[in-house]
Amino acid sequence: MKRFLPTLKPRHIGVTGAGVLLGAAALWLASMQSTELVAGFKPVLLQQGGAGYAVERWQIPTQHRWFYLGGMTLCLIGAGSLAVVKVGDETLLNIETLPDDIPETIQVITAHTNQLLSDGIGTALSWALLSGKKTARLVYLRTAPVPIKDAIAQLKAEKTWFKRFLAAPHNWVVGETRAGKSYLVCKLLIVFFESNPDGIITICDINYGKPTNTGELSDWLGIPPTYIRSDFAEISAAVAAEVEELERRRQVCKDAATAGKRVTEDFQPRLLIVDELDVTADELGGKDGEFIAGIRRLLKMGAGYGMKILLCGQSLAVGETSISEALRSQMAIALVIRKSIKRNEVSKLKANDTDALIERARQIINRGYRAAIVQLEFADPVVSIVPDLSEIKNTRFIVESPTDPDATWWVSVYTQETQAWLQDLAHRYTQGEIKSPVKSEIAPKFGVRVRSDDTRYLRFVKPAWSTALEKSKPKGE
After folding, report:
1. Closest listed residue to residue 454, CA positions, set 199, 248, 264, 237
2. Read out DSSP for 253-268?
3. Dist CA 286 CA 302 (whole Å)
4. Measured distance CA(300)–CA(243) in Å, rounded
5. Alpha-carbon span 367 to 149, nearest angstrom
6. What is the structure's pLDDT at 378?
7. Tens digit of pLDDT for each residue in 73-119?
8. Distance (Å, rounded) from C-alpha 322 to C-alpha 257?
9. How far, CA to CA in Å, does 449 sit from each of 262, 329, 353, 442, 444?
10. pTM for the predicted model, two decimal places
11. Which of 16, 59, 186, 380 has its CB 3.0 to 4.6 Å from that of 35, i.e. a possible disulfide?
12. Is 183 in contact with 217 (CB distance < 8 Å)?
């Protein structure tokens, strides 16, 4: 099907021509070094008596070596001249982009060759069938040439930086609007669930439910709203709950070590996603707020206790995100680029050669690929091709009935009426009308104990109370 055919460009012709000329030069050189096989006869005496002849062969150097040397030289000159010949605005042979142009040329030439073969075979089959009975059924052989360049690029990306990026302790995806960072974040989410089917997630997204005409994924692939926090108060409480869980796990390990025992609790993997980090951090107190302090603590210590953070935003600026350069060593960072390249953002990665990074990214973008400047655990950043993630558009999470009995219990008890009751308590408490109702009213209501070993209290009741308190605080606090 010809709609799959890539465009044959001048640089493809140049690379092909250079390959042919260099191959011809190699043949001229081989001919100059070869020898000629000459055969002759010499008289010999036969055992039976009498005389006979035997065939004798020997080699002599090839003559006319200057002729072969001249042919080789002309081929080399022809190949070199392709670097200065232009067709329109494009040079036939660009030495700087040659590593990319060679596999791309292989793709294009192979695609067109496959198409010619396909058309030829299809035509031959058609004529063969038409030459028989008129009622013969026509069979067309249709082949879609394999996009070699795409395969090479995707294979290279997925087997190098992409897999390492997905496996990093924490991730930070940065990019302008519609740069494709949402697809990368969702891919990370899918990989997390594939590796941890029983994992626990919390998604903080102030733009949850945003209209999809902007091209962004606004519903997180169909994940139920119960896993998503969209209000600033809810987001602050969610981060606080993660920090509480971190401290609980640390205490469990400490108690086990003190008692000289092994940790018997199997910590469930947890993933905290914070989208629009720039705006969220600024709204929740900036670098001095509890929100960003919790993020910093989770980045420093969470990975060792099965807790992962995925941050997503539009800037790497320390002033806007409150994430210091030292904390970046705990993360794998991907600056996803769609069209424009912001030098001030690239410079924040502290590369040895920022200009080279930008130029390399521009070359990839000009060839129709999506580029990412990737920094893996504070190594020197590199430019990579983002693999095709378009299949994520058609990916949806299918939520099965919860097998976690505690989760089932929470869904049954935390009704809208219960939420309203809890919010009313929080309002009265923040107004100073009542003392803390946690032990006197909330714990009996849910049948839990205010203790560090009560998982229902720690996982559900305490975060819900924290969220209610945040919502009840007067504006400006």
Report:
1. 248
2. HHHHHHTT------PP
3. 21
4. 11
5. 11
6. 65
7. 887 887 787 777 777 767 777 777 777 777 777 777 777 676 676 66
8. 34
9. 26, 39, 58, 10, 8
10. 0.54
11. 59
12. yes
